[in-house]
């Protein structure tokens, strides 16, 4: 049963180092070389699902570039964790809402590692609103520009580097399938990401590039204390059949599967680490 202390963070984006308890991001098993020699870029890689994915990719042999907005302390912690796994880490600070920045970030990663094999689109923004009329133009723009424009921009840039055998993994959400009455704009972007994933999978299949998605349910990340009331945080995750929130390292394994040759017969698909909620495929 989930039982988090009530907490709230006023600064956006949230800070993983200020969370109580800290999320579990460490890989749970020894590596087996599933990404040996690969180069990856992970947006929102400083914390949460992005951090867990970046460190797991490193354990499996990949060098990893982390794109993050401004959370320097969290990003440095993630960099140290990647390097502890014996791999190269590159921190790239900036806003995925900018097409020019996305181009710069992808080119920096490809130059640093000599290639790019894996793109993980994960950076996101969410704000709660009880009434649709409370969603301002500024909030709507920020949510769409971060959550879907950023995915477009990063993918556009990455296509100049990805080769046959490469993989793109997009992080969507359970809310893409079931909706969320206080995250209407966020849920709308996640639905767009699901459609984008399927469309790009079809577009790139003849080029040998696989495109898949992961749709997490309630996961204990900086999103939660940053965007929710403290009382909601205390009961976060209790609504799913498992009666608890998931941890980032319980999602990262799904991204690893889709990014590696384990997922070689998967494209246009979405995996659902969500604590047992049954949603449409």
UniProtKB/TrEMBL annotation:
Pfam family, one: adh_short_C2
Origin superkingdom: Bacteria
EC numbers on record: 1.1.1.47
Basic and acidic residues: bias regions: 8-27
Keyword annotations of the record: Oxidoreductase
GO molecular function: glucose 1-dehydrogenase [NAD(P)+] activity
Record keyword Membrane present: no
Segment forming the signal sequence: none
Region (Disordered) residue spans: 1-35
Family as reported in the entry's similarity comment: Belongs to the short-chain dehydrogenases/reductases (SDR) family.
Protein name (record): Glucose 1-dehydrogenase
């Amino acid at each position: 049963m989930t039982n988090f202390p009530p907490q709230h963070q006023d600064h956006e984006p949230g800070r993983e180092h200020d969370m109580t308890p800290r999320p579990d991001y460490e890989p749970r098993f020894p590596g087996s070389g599933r990404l040996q020699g690969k180069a990856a870029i992970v947006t929102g890689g400083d914390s949460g699902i992005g951090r867990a994915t970046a460190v797991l990719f490193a354990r499996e042999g990949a060098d990893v570039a982390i794109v993050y907005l401004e959370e320097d302390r969290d990003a440095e912690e993630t960099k140290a964790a990647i390097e502890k796994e014996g791999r190269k880490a590159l921190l790239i600070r900036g806003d995925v809402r900018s097409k020019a920045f996305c181009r710069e970030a992808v080119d920096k990663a490809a130059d640093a590692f000599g290639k790019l094999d894996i793109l993980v689109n994960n950076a996101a923004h969410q704000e709660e609103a009880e009434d649709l009329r409370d969603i301002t133009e500024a909030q709507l723009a920020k949510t769409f520009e971060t959550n879907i424009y950023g995915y477009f921009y990063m993918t556009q840039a990455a296509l100049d580097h990805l080769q046959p055998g490469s993989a793109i993994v997009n992080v969507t959400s359970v809310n893409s399938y079931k909706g969320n009455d206080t995250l209407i704009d966020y849920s709308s972007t996640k639905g767009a990401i699901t459609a984008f994933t399927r469309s790009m999978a079809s577009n790139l299949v003849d080029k040998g590039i696989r495109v898949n998605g992961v749709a997490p349910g309630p996961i204990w990340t900086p999103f939660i204390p940053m965007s929710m009331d403290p009382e909601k945080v205390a009961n976060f995750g209790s609504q799913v059949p498992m009666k608890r929130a998931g941890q980032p390292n319980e999602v990262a394994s799904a991204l690893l599967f889709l990014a590696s040759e384990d997922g070689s017969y998967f494209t246009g698909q979405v995996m659902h680490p969500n604590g047992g909620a049954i949603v449409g495929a």
